[in-house]
Design brief:
- The protein is of the alpha+beta class.
- The protein has two domains: about 150 residues, 2,3-Dihydroxybiphenyl 1,2-Dioxygenase, domain 1, CATH 3.10.180; about 140 residues, START domain (Alpha-D-Glucose-1,6-Bisphosphate, Chain A, domain 4, 2-Layer Sandwich).
- Helix content is about 20%, strand content about 40%.
- The chain is built from six helices and 16 strands.
- A hairpin with a 3-residue loop joins strand 13 and strand 14.
Length: about 300
């Protein structure tokens, strides 16, 4: 972009938030506060999606890093986002459905409430007798809206291009299955890697949120994975933070009771580092994952 283009581009105010799972965070903001998709952009470092509503010339940017190089940021280190809401009770109901309930404080028509986004960001709701709007504060920075055409069309770059999804039915209780899939240090027994260690403990659960496991593989070398979502006894999500062969990667292991059995669903979403290699990587991942789940099933059912 040259200087003349910068001068001609309309100025808007933007708040940029770094998230772990762009799809999940975008859905939360969209459904909780009726924000509208407004395009996005991709750089070598990140994929960004934009959301707008109400406030003139204001845009919320959700930014997902392609190759995360830093630990999860504590929610207390990020300034809260404020959203003015006219239908306060409806907003509280939507937040409850999304699993992030908020308790109202104060009296009509000037109530307020607090909740947390899927990434732990504190979001403040304030009641106002007007449409939902993003309330601007000093943390909203002026930027040149050089992507107005893409935003008008609602175009958004995809975060991932390939998905591997496999499931296995275990003759065991969810509790027994969880003991094995949540044991990072014990993964070498079934994952097909030479070594697996818990290199960084999570909090408050050692294997939980923020925990990092280091896997040593004979082919791809050393990979470090970080737990970014932890639902004890049910599911967890993880991302690769070092040694990644992908441009973007997010995995999930989820347990579902099926009568006397338990279904384990494993989902891996990724974007290849090199264009054109996604199909081959998907085949290789599927093959290795299928073999790993076979070993895991035998291990769990043997106990």
């Amino acid at each position: 972009m040259n200087e003349s283009q910068a001068l001609q581009a309309p100025q808007i105010r933007q708040r940029s938030l770094t998230v772990v799972d762009l799809r999940r965070s975008e859905r939360w903001f969209r459904e909780a506060f009726s924000l509208r998709p407004a395009g996005g952009r991709r750089t070598r470092e990140a994929v960004c999606w934009w959301l707008v509503n109400g406030a003139p010339a204001a845009r919320l940017e959700l930014r997902q890093a392609a190759l995360p190089l830093s630990p999860l940021m504590a929610a207390s280190d990020v300034e809260p986002l404020t959203v003015a809401v006219w239908d306060f009770d409806a907003a509280l109901a939507r937040l409850a459905v999304l699993g992030t309930p908020a308790t109202a404080r104060g009296h009509v028509p000037s109530r307020c409430a607090s909740t947390c986004s899927p990434d732990g960001l504190r979001v403040e709701l304030v009641e106002e007798l007007q449409a939902i709007t993003l309330r601007l504060d000093p943390h909203w920075e002026p930027v040149a809206d050089v992507d107005a055409r893409a935003a008008a069309k609602g175009q958004r770059p995809a975060t991932d291009t390939h998905t591997v999804r496999l499931q296995v039915l275990l003759n065991a209780s969810p509790e027994r299955a969880w003991e094995h899939i949540a044991d990072h240090a014990g993964m070498a027994a079934w994952l097909g890697v030479q070594q697996a260690t818990l290199s960084r403990a999570g909090s408050p659960d050692r294997n939980g949120l923020g925990a990092e496991r280091t896997l040593v593989d004979a082919v791809i070398g050393t990979v470090v994975e970080q737990v970014v979502d932890w639902q004890p006894g049910c599911s967890y999500r993880y991302r690769i933070v070092a040694g990644s062969p992908f441009r973007y990667h997010l995995g999930e292991l989820r347990l579902r009771p099926q009568g006397a059995q338990t279904e384990l669903l494993v989902t891996i979403r990724f974007r290849p580092r090199w264009p054109g290699t996604g199909g081959v990587l998907k085949l290789v991942l599927g093959f290795k994952l299928r073999a790993a789940l076979g070993k895991l099933k035998a291990l769990i059912e043997a106990h």
